[in-house]
Amino acid sequence: MSPFLTRLAGRIAILIAAGTLVACSVEVDEGGGDYRPRPRPQACTMEYNPVCGVRGGNEQTFPNACEARSNGFRVVGRGECRRGGRPDFRPDDGRACTREYNPVCGANGRDRQTFANACEARRSGFDVIGRGECQVRRPDNGWDGGGSDRDRPRRGERACTMEYNPVCAQRGRDRRTFGNACSADAEGYRIVSPGECSGY
């Protein structure tokens, strides 16, 4: 066999081998077009701010957005999932926010909520209505948090941060210093001044 024919036969053998590999490629179906690999574990807070999440055709209510996302669900609405439709909500638009703590009060209809910053409020579908934590005004010291009386948190059951931003608060004739406004409000005290109480 001539050297030309030997090289030609070698090239043909390589082409046949490559063609065989291409023809024998395997495609793996991972259970449909909606498959997403399960995300890595992440730590979520125990905050109860329910959201409706969806993955594939499955809708499920989660205690908060972090829990939904950590289970591979996309948040489609605030509140519990409803049969026959999702909650009325402007969904998280995917914008990235910084982690700066510059609290703002946000409003969405009658709902009021404190957010770490304005970006977080807007991303959650709330309009910023003021700087700082939302203040609850109760002229008769009654509940104005919506819902019925049975929805009202009992004294001491409200979850507050451990942030130290002291306030002087009063209930009746009792005046005392609390670590922050949330703690004072949770105990049913009315804030009378920022900072520690003096002379009491």
UniProtKB/TrEMBL annotation:
This is Kazal-like domain-containing protein. Gene3D superfamilies: 3.30.60.30. It comes from the Bacteria. Keywords: Signal. PANTHER family: GEO10195P1-RELATED, SERINE-TYPE ENDOPEPTIDASE INHIBITOR. It holds the Pfam family Kazal_1. Residues 32-83, 96-136, 159-199 form the Kazal-like domain. The keyword Signal applies. The keyword Signal applies. Residues 1-23 form the signal peptide.
